[in-house]
Amino acid sequence: xxxxxMDKILPFxxxxxxSDRPLSLREKMLWxxxxxxxxxxxxxxxxxxxxxxxxTQPFLQLVSIIFAAKIGSIITIGIGPIVLSSIVLQLLNGSxxxxxxxxxxxxxxxxxxxxxxxxxxxxxxxxxxxxxxxxVPIASAAYFPIVVLQLFMGSLMIIYLDEMMTKYGIxxxxxxxxxxxxxxxxxxxxxxxxxxEAAAAIGAGGAAAISNAILAFxxxxxxxxxxxxxxxxxEMKVELPLAFGDIRGVGGRLPIPFLYVSVLPVILASxxxxxxxxxxxxxxxxxxSLANLAKFIAYxxxxxxxxxxxxxxxxxxISPSFPLPYSAAYGGIGGYAAxxxxxxxxxxxxFLPWGGMVLVPEWIxxxxxxxxxxxxxxxxxxxxxxxxxxxxxxxxxQIGDMGWQIPGxxxxxxxxxxxxxxxxxxxxVLGSIFxxxxxxxxxxxxxxxxxxxxxxxxxxxxxLYQQLQQERLFESYxxxxxxxxx
Length: 486
Prior knowledge:
Layout: H1 6-9, H2 25-43, H3 58-66, H4 80-95, H5 105-132, H6 144-168, H7 173-204, H8 209-216, H9 218-235, E1 237-244, E2 251-257, H10 264-279, H11 291-297, E3 299-301, E4 309-312, H12 314-318, H13 336-345, E5 347-352, E6 356-361, H14 362-387, H15 392-401, E7 404-405, H16 413-420, H17 424-445, H18 451-476, H19 478-483
Antiparallel strand pairs: 1-2, 1-7, 3-4, 5-6
Helix pairs in contact: 2-6, 4-5, 5-6, 7-8, 7-18, 9-17, 9-18, 10-14, 14-17, 15-16
């Protein structure tokens, strides 16, 4: 199905106008600073009618990190609608249900128009879901439509801030919003939670005062480990020699990094897991003949003065529903001693429609969550390279179109493809497993800023660093832009 019908709708969709001239790096940095300032203003502004003190579930903090949002704020929905609409459209295009050539200007405009319209629609639906299911606690029922409207308007602001960043900033808005939110969470968590915990441990005195103070910085220690491991993984790569066929003596290297698809697989895998946990909230109050099936999928327990909490079922077993290893005063479980005791002794309630309720040890939850996250990361990693033109076949075609070839071989895309097939599939699988396991480890250890957030931030900063280097190089040597097809 083509999207020609969008030609009549596109003129009515509000769009950020692109600059009439190329922007310098300095201008892009200035625009980036302005957009980030607006983002943080929205990030720290709670919607009227929301009860911020009631936002206590650790699970919601991971939702906030993945979607560059802050539960209860104007931008509670965050980048979720943009990501979800993009994933759906990529799936439809890849399956052949819609036909779009992203190298065609008209098709690309249609794709962006449909993506924006679907993101707006998803933003409204998720605004309703977040409030109606209790993820965003409100002061009274009278505030329900007001809060939904504010969250929807916040999702619109994020959509257009992302578009403005793409056209005027140094990178995409999605990337920078995630990195900014995670950086803020790390600083706020260290200053607002870990330092007071360490000070309280020293103030309590006793023989264990120093060791307790050191343990208080455990989440920061694990965050540093994830940060260093991520940087090391990004630096690992295989380099294939290239020669420019039209200009003798000009050569280069094609890097195939260990994290070939960056952290995108684990973003998609985590988004799927978190979205399932959010959307299945609707079955918490299912009664009648479907009640047993609903409990098997996702088992909820009532919470005094609040909405039902996910406590079991298949959705719970694949979700990162673990407590935080902070002291109880900061919404945690009471420190690492209490946290590891919880993991060793806690049981998950799994309702079997044919056998009633059974108790599953928490360590099984840990294994299932880790394996599912790693498995989904591999699936999405392989899917993503096919959908985004990073497969060996597409990359070989791009190399040939730009006039490059591998020294010692004929200038034939099929030969280049066969060589790339020796590396790309393997590094895609191994890299996807690595980021999946690293994200699971960081989540289980309670790293401040969440392990997922640190992985995303390292990847975004690394890509931004490479992009800034390229911008500087192209500004200094315009001939390079022409050689690379710019």
